[in-house]
Structure formats: C-alpha cells, structure tokens
Write a sequence for this structure.
C-alpha cells in the first residue's frame, strides 16, 4: 500500500514548527554545506577525485528540501523514522540517513543575535563578548532531559543518574537575555554533574576574567560561582533564618522576589525548547541528543530574535 502525501502540506508550520519564510531561509542557508558534505563523503568513499561530471550518477530518493522537512517534523513531533519514510515514500533507512545528515547542520549554526541579521553566537566567549559590547545582563540556567538508561555493566552508568530528578538524564546549560531570547546552549553533560560544574567545564570562569563588565543572573544552584566571581555571578540573597526580625525577613524575601522576576526569562526560553517533543523525553541514542538540542535552540532563537 502506497500513501501519497502532498509535500506542501508536510511543509506547513503545524508539522515543521517553523514558518514557510523561515523554512525557505533555512533551505537557502543549509543547501550548500549539505551538498559539500555529501560530496566529501562520496570523495572519501571513492578514494579519489570525481571521475564523472558534476550531477552525473544516481539521483537522491529524497531531495534536499524533503530531507530538511522530514528532519524538522522529526524534531518537532518525534515521529518514528518508519512513519516519515511512509509519508515521503522511501525506505526507513533512507529517512534515518537523511535525518542524520541534516540534523547536524542547524546544530552547527549557533543562535541568532537579536536585531543583528546574519550574526550568530556559537561559543560561550561569543556570548560574553556580545553582552559586554551591548551592555546586556545575561540569564543562565540548566535543564535536564530524561534519557534511556545505559545497559547494565557498562562503564559510567551512574553518571547519568540525576540526584534531583532521580532519573537518567542529560543536562543542558542555556543562556538567554532579558527578553527570554536564547543566545547559547552547551554540549550537554551527564545528569549527575552539578549545575555549577557544568558551567565551569564550558569555561565560564575564563569568560568572567576576560569580560569583567558582564553580569549573569543565576539561581541558588550557582552559589559557588558567586563566591568565585563576586559582582559578576549574581545569585539571590540567602533565605533569612527563622529567628530573623520581621523586617529583615520581609526585605530578604522582597529581594529574592525581584531577582526571580528578572531571571524568569531564561525559564521562558527553556519552556520554548521543551515545546519541541524530542526534548520532553529523549528515547534515542544519547550521543545524538547534543546536536538535537543545539539544533532546536538555534531554530527557536531564529524566531525569537525577530520578535
């Protein structure tokens, strides 16, 4: 039984999660690096230079635009590869290979910069340099995504067990601005790692040293960073003890509320990411999650940067 689905319908925003204009811009931006990657793999497989003229040889069963649409549907709705293969009229292995090829391309783009068309932030240093140049106060937080439990007997199995969620997770560190627009996300770490340790492993201490004018709002999980970088790593005031005077207690709570109100925008950014179904619970290979998260964060940043 063959199912014929209108490709224009599959490219609708309800399926892909991006507008048609955004999809057209993505296709224009990613077509060249995809073609270069395909030719590079073919060159490596041949073991030498091309012997046929450009464009000769077997045609792809899925053209680039179909591959891009299938990958976006997979990211947005987490449809199985077999279902996508049925919708596009190809074999499941073709859909799997296409998604693997395309997913890394948006992951390598980085995050869009608000009101700066064509400029993208790919590293933590880029974010701090941008924040210092524009005088922006950053918000940083971590989120955890449930992943499949590693097989018994495999080394490092306990590294993914989160002490907070009591599940096997991977942790993503995200930076947003005062409007909740995503500026950067890291390479993801095992869920057992502390939030502050994950940030340190990304080199945040070096960034604080080289960009002394940048302030980052953090939650109570980053008290160690506040101790090491006072005035730059800003956490809420400590909760007052039970014997504190009423006016001291009220002042502390008010200060904590003001800090939380300013930092809440990074929580909004994380919520935008979790609207893509693949980030609600990851059921695939753990090594593919970092590219998936960075790809989704980059796509979300494209939309919020133009708001």
């Amino acid at each position: 039984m063959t199912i014929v689905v209108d490709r224009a319908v599959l490219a609708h925003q309800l399926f892909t999660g991006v507008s048609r204009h955004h999809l057209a811009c993505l296709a224009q931006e990613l077509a060249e690096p995809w073609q270069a990657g395909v030719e590079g793999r073919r060159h490596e497989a041949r073991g030498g230079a091309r012997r046929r003229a450009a464009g000769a040889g077997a045609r792809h069963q899925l053209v680039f635009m179909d591959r891009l649409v299938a990958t976006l549907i997979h990211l947005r709705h987490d449809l199985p590869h077999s279902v996508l293969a049925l919708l596009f009229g190809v074999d499941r292995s073709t859909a799997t290979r296409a998604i693997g090829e395309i997913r890394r391309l948006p992951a390598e783009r980085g995050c869009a910069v608000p009101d700066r068309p064509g400029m993208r932030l790919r590293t933590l240093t880029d974010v701090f340099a941008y924040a210092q140049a524009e005088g922006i106060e950053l918000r940083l937080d971590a989120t955890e995504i449930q992943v499949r439990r590693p097989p018994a007997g495999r080394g490092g199995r306990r590294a993914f067990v989160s002490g907070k969620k009591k599940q096997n997770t991977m942790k993503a560190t995200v930076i947003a601005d005062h409007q909740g627009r995503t500026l950067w996300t890291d390479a993801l770490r095992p869920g057992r790692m502390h939030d502050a340790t994950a940030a340190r492993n990304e080199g945040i201490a070096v960034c604080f040293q080289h960009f002394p004018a940048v302030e980052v709002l953090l939650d109570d999980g980053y008290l160690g960073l506040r101790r090491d970088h006072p005035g730059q790593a800003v956490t809420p005031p400590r909760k007052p003890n039970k014997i504190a005077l009423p006016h001291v207690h009220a002042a502390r709570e008010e200060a904590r509320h003001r800090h939380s109100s300013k930092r809440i925008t990074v929580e909004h950014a994380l919520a935008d990411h979790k609207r893509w179904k693949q980030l609600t619970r990851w059921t695939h290979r753990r090594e593919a999650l970092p590219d998936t998260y960075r790809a989704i964060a980059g796509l979300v940043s494209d939309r919020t940067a133009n708001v």
Q: What stands out?
A: The chain has a mean pLDDT of 88. The chain has two domains: 7-107, 114-305.
